[in-house]
Amino acid sequence: MIWNKLSKYSDLGLLIFRLGFGLGFLFFHGWGKLIGGPERWAGLGGAMSTFGINFGHTFFGFLAAFAESVGGVMIAAGLFYRPIAAMLAFTMFVAAMRHFVSGEGTAAHAFKNFFVLLGLLPLGPGKYSLDAMMSNKKEAVVEHA
User: How many separate domains does the chain show?
Assistant: First the structure.
C-alpha cells in the first residue's frame, strides 16, 4: 500500500514538522513576548500564581518568552531538541492551566501544543537535525581515537 511506503520519509516529515512548528512558535508566540521587555514578562509570569507561586513573575515570564522564541528556533534546527521540547511542553502546560483557572481565553491551543510536544519527546528530531549532525561527529571522533 502507498501509505506504508511513506514511512521511509519519516525523517523528512520530522524536518518539515520541526521547521513549521518551531518557526511558528518564534513568529506567532515568542518573538513579541521576548521583545516586550520586563513589563510583558511580569504579566506572562503571573501565570505561575495559578500554582501558588507569587514571586519572580518577571523571571518566569522571561523564561516562557525565551522558550517560545529561542526554543522555537532550536526546535526548527533540531538543536538540544528534547530538553527544549520539554521546556516548551512545561510552558504550554502552565499556559493551559492559566486559561482553565482564570477562564480568560481558551486553553485549546496551549493544550494541543502541550500534547504535541509531549508526543515528540520520544521521537527525537530525526536525522536531518543539528543534534544528529553533532552526534555523528562525536561518534566519528570516538571511532578514530
Answer: 1
Which residue has 528556533 as its cell numbers? 73
pTM, 2 dp: 0.86
Please count the other Cβ atoms lying within 10 Å of the Cβ belonging to residue 144.
6
d(CA 83, CA 12): 21
Give the separation between CA 30 and CA 34, rounded to whole angstroms: 6
Cell numbers given for 60 = 518566569
Distance between CA atoms of residues 14 and 116, nearest Å: 13
- From the CB of residue 6, how many other CB atoms can be counted at a distance below 10 Å? 11
Residue 123 inside a domain? The answer is yes
pLDDT digits (tens, 9 = 90+) for 49-67: 999 999 999 999 999 999 9
Host domain of residue 134? 10-144
**Domain assignment of residue 93, yes or no:** yes
